[in-house]
User: What shape does this take?
Amino acid sequence: AQSVTQLDSQVPVFEEAPVELRCNYSSSVSVYLFWYVQYPNQGLQLLLKYLSGSTLVKGINGFEAEFNKSQTSFHLRKPSVHISDTAEYFCAVSDQGAQKLVFGQGTRLTINP
Amino acid sequence: SQTIHQWPATLVQPVGSPLSLECTVEGTSNPNLYWYRQAAGRGLQLLFYSVGIGQISSEVPQNLSASRPQDRQFILSSKKLLLSDSGFYLCAWSTGTTYEQYFGPGTRLTVT
Assistant: This one.
């Protein structure tokens, strides 16, 4: 079964600094990968997804992620964060043909002024 | 466009009382439907999913159950709530052909 590891439970950064949230998944023949964002007391919102094609995926709110098959990673990046990016971020993976997503434990991103 | 609704938004229930949470999806047909629970400070736990009316798969054995009486309606129930049932309950849907899931606003359940 697939598993997802988000290597940092909390990431504090200063406003306008770059950030990287790390995600590794267990190996599989083919995977689809996702990043979601959750603001306090809200549902999850899809940030970006990798299904196939270019390994660099751009999403909403200026975020991007890079799929690295050899390292089984899908790290999320943003070159300059804003206070409004404070939220919980979840990485998720689905096996091709599976009807389920496996989520990581989440990374809490805190932006300090 | 598709929308997903959950109600109630918040609920406070005593231990041993029954539970019914409802989720409905608009703007799509034959969606896959999912119930997740998010305990305080923890990640998402998949509880149930359904690929069609009356088809329910349970991921975690517990005192909760799910039903799908209509194509776009998914209900989470319990006959007797436990303190450990407290949490944030999220419903999600997917098309079944693409893999991304879309989440509802959630229900905050506190069992006292």
